[in-house]
Each structure stands twice: as structure tokens, then as C-alpha cells.
Amino acid sequence: MGRVGVLLLNLGGPDKLEDVQPFLFNLFSDPEIIRLPFRWLQKPLAWFISTRRTQTSQENYRKIGGGSPLRQITEAQGEALKAQLAEVGEQANIYVGMRYWHPYTEEAIAQIVADKIEKLVVLPLYPQFSISTSGSSYRLLEQLWRENPKLQQIEYSVIASWYKQPGYLQAMAELIRQELDQLPNPDEAHIFFSAHGVPKSYVEEAGDPYQQEIEECTHLIMQTLNRPLPHTLAYQSRVGPVEWLQPYTEQAIQDLAHQGVKNLVVVPVSFVSEHIETLEEIDIEYREVAEEAGIENFRRVPALNVHPVFIKALADLTVDALKSPSISLSQVNQMKKKVKMYPQERWEWGITTSAEVWNGRVAMLGFIALMIEILTGHGLLHAVGLL
Ligand SMILES: C=CC1=C(C)c2cc3[nH]c(cc4nc(cc5[nH]c(cc1n2)c(C)c5CCC(=O)O)C(CCC(=O)O)=C4C)c(C)c3C=C
Ligand SMILES: [Fe+2]
Ligand SMILES: [Fe+2]
């Protein structure tokens, strides 16, 4: 086999407080994060929302040390994976490709080309698939592949989602067990899975398999844990006023407390690294909610980070992908059959000069309407819940 590479995909996070606004701008510029019917509206809206959100977001990053630990942890995972692969006789270069901050996916791909990688495994650091996470990165990769003939010569294989991988399930169960056993009375614990949410319309209208994969994943973790304890699944980190997957974490914690639950073990289920939504949202915000509602023991299970059983699981996934027939980016999107990646590209097809003129006029009117809405606080986007 020629030179082997593994591309680890993740979302990325601001390294310091000054990075927060441009990071948020990149995130909200992605049509898989805010799904709008018009391409031209994406950037003005991304600018507006990122500017409005920066201060709150910066305050949260300040509480966890002034930046996201995601880059450092992902790089450590990469080094551990390289060492684990070497142990089983597989020499591979590891690349980190973040979607919205450094090191960007584009930078990783440029390095992969420069290093003359011949066989590449694409491994998202999201156990479950969502249009908004792995889906967005696959879409970017598809575009980079289309644009670069050198990339088209690389034999590559994509791992779509991997929440059923036994080593991953074992590592999760082990971490939960450790947390349970530190409670004064482990048999009275309630296990609370908190997954990152997505808007409900992603699942119900666009066909995102995320909710189904999260539900199956929590079921498999409970099976692997093999303890007769009650459990709940809820969704956190809602952004904006539209409806997201329910129940919401905050409400579900309060409901359990009112039902008399006193010992809660919170499991962050859609992340494999510590980041703002574990360190700030769960450890600070939800802990406060829980304690105010009467929970006496609130314990959070740590993220997998470089847990050796987890790193071995990533190595097993890589080795399996190298041995099995390759899976292409377009196959992954077909496998997630009904998924509608946001079809903004469609608007480009069949463009004529007169259509361009009308596009420009409508864009200008829309932009003026947006500015009026921003200044007055009233308008269509407020009415449909986007602002
Ligand atoms: C499985 C994981 C994730 C899903 C699904 C997801 C969807 C999603 N996220 C937002 C909005 C934001 N996400 C932000 C940060 C962030 N999100 C994830 C993971 C998932 N997002 C990660 C790993 C991070 C990085 C955290 C870090 O440590 O820096 C943020 C910025 C943080 C903040 O301001 O709260 C936003 C905003 C949407 C809208 C969405 C689905 C549509
Ligand atoms: Fe997010
Ligand atoms: Fe948040």
C-alpha cells in the first residue's frame, strides 16, 4: 500500500476571545447550519447573527479559560491514533480538518496533496451523522474534490458514522461506570444522556438521521453498561427561536428533579472531546439548574478525549476502512438516503442573463428589507422565527 493518511474531521472552535466573532461568522455562513432558500441572504445574516452573539459567546469562552480546547484535544487524539496504528503495523500520517476554524479542512487537504498521500481514510470525530456536522464537512470535501484533479487521484474511503463500534461503546460504558461508582448510592442514580440538538425541521423535513442514530446509540451504551438503571435522553445547546429536538436538557433535568430524582449522572453523547458545551453549558449552566431544582449529586461523565479504549476504536475503524471496499463521498450521501443537503446550488442551474438581472433586483430589495428589520426589530424573519 502507498502512503496512508487519516483525515480527522471536526467542527473547530475559537482559540482565543478575538477569534469568536470570525468563528461564528464562518459557522453561520454554512447553509447546513442555517438553512435559507437564498444564497445571497446567507452572508448578511451570518454577519448579523455572529455580531449579535459574539458578546454572550465570548463570556462563555472566558469562563472556560478564554478559548476552545477543541484544537489541542483533536491534535492529541491524532497523535494517539498515529501511535496506536503504528503498533498494529500501519504507518499513517494524521491530518486534522476543522470546518469553521484553524486548522481548516482546506489546509489539511493542501497538506495531504503536498505529502503525496495515496490512500486516505476520512474519519469524522462525530459518532453520529448529522447534516449539520459530518454532512457539512462531506459537502465541503465533495467541492474540494471536484475542483482539484490531484485529489481525484487519491484513493479514499469515508466512514459515515460509527456509533455502533464496540470499542467506542465500551469506552463510553467504562467512563459512565467510573462516575456511577463515585456516587454515595450508585443504585439510585438516573443516567441522563445529553446530546447536542438540531432544529426539528432537519429531522422531519430534511430527513437527517441524527435523532434516530442518537437514540440507537444511547440504547447500545445502556446495553453495554449493563446496569438496571433508569435513563433519559434530552437535547442541549439550542440556538435561536425555532423549535429544536425535544425534550430540552434544561426542562428534562427540572422534570426529573420534580419527580424526586436526587442523583444524576450526565453523559454528553454526541461529543468525543471536551468543549464549550460540556465545560460551560453542562458543568456550569445545567449544574446550577439541577441544584436549584433539588438534585443533590450532579456528576458529569468526562468526554472520551484520548481514552485508550476509544483511541483503539478509532484505529480499528481506520484499519477496517483500509481493508474494506472504498466508500465515496457521494455513496455516503446516498446511504443516508432521504437526506436533503441544503439545495442552494440548484439556484445556479440554468441561469440566464435576465434571471441574473432579476436575482440582483430581488437581492437588493431583500437586503434593504433585512437592514430595515435589523434596525426596527420587526419584519418577516422575526415573524418566521429566524431572528
Ligand atoms: C454533534 C455535535 C454538534 C451538532 C449536531 C451541532 C449542531 C449545531 N450547532 C449550532 C450552533 C453552534 N455550535 C457551536 C459550537 C459547537 N458545536 C459543536 C457540535 C455540534 N453542533 C461543537 C463541537 C462546537 C465547538 C465548541 C467549542 O468548544 O468551541 C456554536 C458556538 C458556541 C456558542 O456560541 O454557543 C454555535 C453557535 C447549530 C445552529 C447547529 C445545528 C443546526
Ligand atoms: Fe454546535
Ligand atoms: Fe451553547
From TrEMBL:
Reaction equations catalysed: Fe-coproporphyrin III + 2 H(+) = coproporphyrin III + Fe(2+); heme b + 2 H(+) = protoporphyrin IX + Fe(2+)
Keyword annotations of the record: Cytoplasm, Heme biosynthesis, Iron, Lyase, Metal-binding, Porphyrin biosynthesis
A matching Pfam family: Ferrochelatase
GO molecular function, one term: ferrochelatase activity
Protein task: Catalyzes the ferrous insertion into protoporphyrin IX.
EC identifiers of the protein: 4.98.1.1
Family from the record: Belongs to the ferrochelatase family.
Presence of keyword Glycosyltransferase: no
InterPro entries membership: Ferrochelatase, Ferrochelatase_AS, Ferrochelatase_C, Ferrochelatase_N
Subcellular location: Cytoplasm
Pathway note: Porphyrin-containing compound metabolism; protoheme biosynthesis; protoheme from protoporphyrin-IX: step 1/1
Stated name of the protein: Ferrochelatase
Keyword Transmembrane helix: no
Top EC category: lyase
GO cellular component, one term: cytoplasm
Coiled-coil region list: none
Binding-site positions, Fe(2+): H196, E277
Protein source organism: Plectonema cf. radiosum LEGE 06105
Record-level GO BP terms: heme biosynthetic process
Gene: hemH
